[in-house]
Amino acid sequence: MWVRTLLTLCLLAVIAALCVRFLLPLLPSLREMDLSTESFAQFMRDAGGWGVAGSIGLMIVHSFIPFPAEFVAFANGLVYGPYWGVAITWVGAMLGAFAAFGLARWLGRPFVEAVVPIRHRVRLDN
């Protein structure tokens, strides 16, 4: 069990390192970027499919790290319009829910037993 978890964490670390190595240099530095609403919206539109993928990715991350999803949903509506904004937000939310469910099924009860103290598990089991 722990070997599989360790391998998964190593794989995620490698994926994150590759993203930082290859995708981060493609983004303009904050000094060069105008942070107004319209310039940000134009930046997202100019990114094309990568902008949509980034929005969907933020919604997937939202399933694991709590931050207000309303900001992402509002930005999607502002950048892509109400219909495409809703569609992009919904796809990201559903993929995030699918990923969270799959991770919970994969890790299962042994992970919960390792993380949650016994006194809390007794309350949950009853």
Low-confidence stretches: none
Structural class designation: mainly alpha
Helix tally equals 5
Give the C-alpha Rg: 19 Å
The termini sit apart by 26 Å
Written as H for each helix and E for each strand, in order along the chain, the element string is HHHHH
Kindly estimate the percentage of residues that lie in beta strands according to DSSP: under 5%
On the 0 to 100 scale, the average pLDDT is 83
Into which percent range does the helicity of residues fall?
over 70%
Largest sheet: none
Question: How are the secondary structure elements laid out?
Answer:
Elements: H1 2-23, H2 37-46, H3 49-62, H4 69-115, H5 118-125
Describe the fold and architecture:
The two termini are 26 Å apart. The mean pLDDT is 83. The longest helix has 47 residues, at 69-115. It is built from 5 helices and no strands. Helices cover 80% and strands 0% of the residues. The protein has a domain at 38-125. Helix 3 crosses helix 4 (69-115). It is mostly helical. The chain is globular and about 50 Å long.
Pick out its properties.
0% strand, 5 helices, 126 residues
Concise account of the structure shown:
This protein is mostly helical and 126 residues long.
